[in-house]
Specification:
Elements lengths: L26 E16 L9 E14 L4 E12 L7 E12 L2 E7 L17 H4 L4 E8 L3 E11 L9 E15 L3 E15 L10 E15 L4 E15 L10 E13 L3 E11 L26 E16 L2 E12 L4 E20 L7
Antiparallel strand pairs: 1-2, 1-16, 2-3, 3-4, 4-5, 5-6, 6-7, 7-8, 8-9, 9-10, 10-11, 11-12, 12-13, 13-14, 14-15, 15-16
Length: 366
């Protein structure tokens, strides 16, 4: 069963982590993480163009846990888009993770994307499909009263006389629990992401650019034992800044208000409603609909300084078998300023499984 709704809905089954278990010390495992996806955006207006993502992702990993606190993982990541020849993306994976008493550190391939649990205005959820792999450093705290994820994702490496700039992003998401008991939870949340383009050894003459986006807010959850399992509401204030912008840049700074309310039922069906009010808000990695500048996919770039949107999200998320999860989503939205309705829908079928190939405990040295 899916747990822990995020701002929109639960993405827990789509998260991919390098799990470390005390009992697995000395073991070698073969691990599979497969997501089959269909994402269709039925968007026809100027701000965001519709398109379809349809295919499969596969991470095949070989891991070794030499002790209770360390894990080394290597493998390969594949993305296959249906209707194309061969693989769209083939990437090697290599990661080293340390974990002890709720503290973890990762170097190499990160526990990225949905694992950061950022708001969609700061981090487009479709990057899970289009930019799945993140590499760099990551530090996480996962304890009773605090959950925090800090990372740097090195996105483009440049070399001497490269004709392009280096690119990286860095972020933090921290949740502090103020109140927690059987029926009620109250948390304060802070999120931030900065993206940078620059470098000193390239021959690209473009100016350096840095974009900052932040969000602070409160989350309240009411747990029930009826047909409705839980009701959650979140309220955020957001800020964006183009740190190297020209004085006449209309999006040098922006702000927004984001409110959501949602519920989960015991029959794995959920509902969520969100309101977005953005003013000159523009981020580097955020969802297209939340931005004041139109999507890269549009035929011509347009701007909409004030974005006022109402989202309704319906979802069915169910564990079908021991290692198989299904996720169906229908997500219409209404543009309050321009009075039109559009929608998107998606389907995910996830398979996660690991197999122990060898365990040193069962083969003691002679």
């Amino acid at each position: 069963m899916f747990t822990s709704m995020q701002a929109q809905m639960s993405n827990v089954a789509l998260e991919s982590r390098y799990e470390i278990n005390d009992s697995a010390a000395g073991s070698v495992k073969l691990e599979f993480d497969n997501q089959n996806f269909l994402r269709n955006n039925e968007y026809f207006h100027d701000h965001a163009t519709g398109y379809t993502l349809f295919g499969t992702l596969l991470q095949t990993k070989l891991s070794y846990q030499p002790s209770e606190h360390w894990k080394l993982t290597t493998g390969i990541f594949l993305r296959r888009d249906f209707g194309s020849n061969g693989f769209y993306q083939v990437q090697p994976m290599l990661s080293l993770k340390y974990q002890h008493k709720g503290i973890s550190f990762v170097v190499g391939n990160l526990e990225g994307n949905f694992n950061h649990r950022l708001l969609e205005p700061l981090y487009n959820y479709e990057r899970f499909l289009t930019n799945n792999q993140e590499t760099g450093l990551q530090f996480r705290v996962d304890r009773k009263k605090i959950w925090s994820d800090t990372w740097i994702n090195w996105e483009v490496m440049q070399y001497n006389r490269s004709n392009y700039q280096e690119q990286f992003s860095a972020g933090n998401h921290t949740q502090i629990t103020l109140l927690q008991h059987a029926k009620h939870e109250l948390k304060v949340i802070a999120q931030g992401l900065i993206a940078h383009k620059g470098g000193q050894i390239d021959i690209d003459t473009s100016a350096m650019a840095s974009k900052l986006s932040t969000a602070v807010g409160l989350e309240y959850v009411w747990h029930t034992s009826s047909f409705i399992k839980e009701i959650k509401t979140q309220h955020y204030l957001l800020y964006s800044s183009f740190l190297n912008a020209a004085k006449n840049d209309p999006y040098h700074q922006g702000n927004a208000y984001y409110a959501t309310i949602g519920l989960n039922t015991k029959y794995d069906v959920g509902f969520n409603m969100s309101f977005w009010q953005g003013n000159r808000f523009q981020t580097s990695h955020g969802g297209d609909l939340f931005q004041s500048l139109s999507s890269d996919y549009t035929q011509r770039r347009t701007s909409d300084n004030n974005r006022s949107l109402l989202f309704v999200r319906l979802f069915y998320q169910k564990k079908l078998a021991k290692d198989i999860y299904m996720d169906i989503r229908f997500e219409p939205y209404y543009d309050l300023n321009h009075s039109f309705l559009e929608y998107a829908y998606s389907f995910y079928l996830t398979y996660k499984k690991d197999f122990v190939l060898f365990n040193e405990k069962n083969h003691p040295k002679k």
